[in-house]
Write a structure and sequence with these properties.
With about 475 residues, the protein is α/β, with parallel strands linked by helices. The protein folds into two domains: about 35-70 and about 350-460, Alpha-Beta Complex (Aspartate Aminotransferase, domain 1); about 75-345, Aspartate Aminotransferase, domain 2 (3-Layer(aba) Sandwich). About 40% of the residues lie in helices and about 15% in strands. The protein has 17 helices and 15 strands. The strands form three sheets. Strands 4-10-9-8-7-5-6 form a seven-stranded mixed sheet, sandwiched between helices. Strands 1-2-3-13 form a four-stranded mixed sheet. A hairpin with a 4-residue loop joins β2 and β3 (about 55). α10 packs parallel to α11 (about 245-255). The structure holds pyridoxal-5'-phosphate. The site of pyridoxal-5'-phosphate (PLP) has 15 residues, from α6.
């Protein structure tokens, strides 16, 4: 028996988990009543639970395990670095080889002149840094009034006070007194649900123009930045119409504001290029990175800043009174370096672009023929299905939003496929290294789950359109 198998019995683990562990984004009473599923192993694209059941991880953990599970090279890189220098900070006019190596690698891989990296322990922390950076940047240029950050409804930028304020998740704002001051939210480019009679192209332009209206309304002299994900991930894999990003770019170019692109999901290959900004032709001033940077093996995040802006910031900003104990953690950096080395050596992104993404797209879009699917959409290796009571009208279910999605997710988990539901949308984002036969498995299990959900809804009289 592998030493890792030598754990307590499942019911005992669940009881201890219920007694002492509070889960993130979870209804505690509910999970404790049901018992959490205990994941004990993983290899490639598959997870194994404490009962020995295997699950295909269609979410790459939380959109992060880009090179798949069980890569010994990453474990070895961590062990080597831990023996040599497990920790040291970068506050005291000090630095270390892993943080230097990773920064130069990121500068090489990131678009054009994004050359300077500020590290955080996560995507949320990095977005908190971005708020402080953007505001201090303008203040050091003698424009302290430029402090408003414009973000989007249903965007996701993390869960700290700052990042959750940038995010536009109303359920998150309802707890804990968010958002913080000087954050404004504009519409999301979500054509399926909000585009009404507009064509996607018209709707994309209209949503982007909201940024220009917001800048006019708030006063350009008061606006520091606009932040957005190239494709909204947690919001439900919302892929903007083709007209959206060019118009956003035009507006950002025409006004004196920073463009912060949150690449936490889209970065490191998810959309078929190193960064989502390349896929959508965006020229960011700052990008947020985390998740796929280390394939989730260790927590690390950061902001990559355009050379010219970083230069002004360093000339005029004085001391940036901000940082984290774990900014540029040497072990996390060593693991990220190894992860990126593997991605380059194994041509992971070229394989995604040439082989896996086109194949996944073909298979995933075939699910649009299912009677329960109103729309299937995908970019690179992330996709969504809009579950709908009536094909083609784009109207929601009469039931509470999320009820149907939850039924489908439960079926999916029972069938051995991890898909997530966002309201009544099913989303997937598998490891980038998923093979064609594993893609077949994913799509077949998704199809089976749709069939079962459809049968359930029929039986319960839930195939009703909201009036
Ligand atoms: C996950 C996510 C974050 C937050 O990252 P954490 O590491 O969970 O703090 C920020 N932005 C986007 C787009 C994300 O998907």
């Amino acid at each position: 028996m592998n030493i890792l198998d030598n754990h307590r019995a499942t019911d005992e683990l669940q009881a201890l988990d219920a007694a002492h562990h509070l889960h993130p984004f979870t209804d505690t009473a509910q999970i404790n009543a049901n018992g959490a599923r205990v994941i004990t192993h993983a290899s490639g694209v598959h997870l194994t639970d404490s009962n020995g059941e295997k699950l295909l991880d269609g979410m790459a953990g939380l959109w992060c395990v880009n090179i798949g599970y069980g890569r010994k090279e990453l474990a070895n890189a961590a062990a080597r670095q831990m023996s040599q220098l497990p920790y040291y900070n970068t506050f005291f006019q000090t630095t270390h080889p892993p943080v230097i190596e990773l920064s130069s690698t990121l500068a090489r891989l990131a678009p054009a002149d994004l050359n300077r990296v500020f590290y955080a322990g996560s995507g949320s922390e990095a977005n908190d840094t971005n708020i402080r950076f953007a505001r201090h940047y303008w203040a050091s240029l003698g424009k302290p009034d430029k402090s408003i950050i414009i973000a989007r409804k249903n965007g996701y930028h993390g869960s700290t006070l700052g990042a959750a304020s940038l995010g536009g998740m109303s359920a998150m704002h309802a707890q804990g007194g968010l958002p913080i001051p000087d954050v404004e939210h504009i519409a999301q480019p979500y054509w399926y649900a909000e585009g009404r009679d507009n064509s996607p192209e018209e709707f994309g332009i209209a949503c982007a123009r909201e940024l220009e209206f917001a800048i006019a309304r708030l006063g350009e002299k008061n606006v520091a930045a606009f932040i957005a994900e190239p494709v909204q991930g947690a919001g439900g894999v919302i892929i903007p119409p083709s007209t959206y990003w060019p118009e956003i770019q035009r507006i950002c170019d025409a006004h004196e504001i920073l463009l912060i692109v949150d690449e936490v999901i889209c970065g490191f290959g998810r959309t078929g290029n190193w960064f989502g900004s390349e896929t959508f032709g965006i020229r960011p001033d700052i990008i947020t990175i985390a998740k796929g940077m280390s394939s989730g093996y260790l927590p690390i995040g950061g902001s990559i800043i355009r050379e010219e802006i970083a230069e002004v910031f360093s000339q005029k900003g004085g001391e940036f009174v901000h940082g984290y104990t774990y900014s540029g953690h040497p072990v996390a950096c060593a693991v990220a370096i190894e992860n990126l080395r593997i991605m380059e050596e194994e041509d992971v992104i070229a394989t995604v672009a040439d082989v896996s993404a086109p194949y996944l797209e073909e298979r995933w879009l075939s699910l649009a023929d299912h009677p329960l699917v109103g729309e299937a959409r995908i970019v690179g290796m992330m996709g969504a299905l809009e579950l709908a009571p009536e094909k083609s009208s784009r109207k929601p279910f009469a039931s509470d939003e999320g009820d149907v999605g939850l039924i489908c997710r439960e079926h999916s988990f029972s069938n051995g496929l991890i898909m997530r539901h966002v309201g009544d949308k099913m989303v997937m984002s598998p490891p980038l290294v998923i093979t064609k036969s594993e893609i077949d498995e994913l799509v077949e299990l998704a199809h089976m789950s749709l069939d079962q959900t459809y049968a359930d809804l029929k039986q319960r009289g839930m195939l009703k359109v909201s009036q």
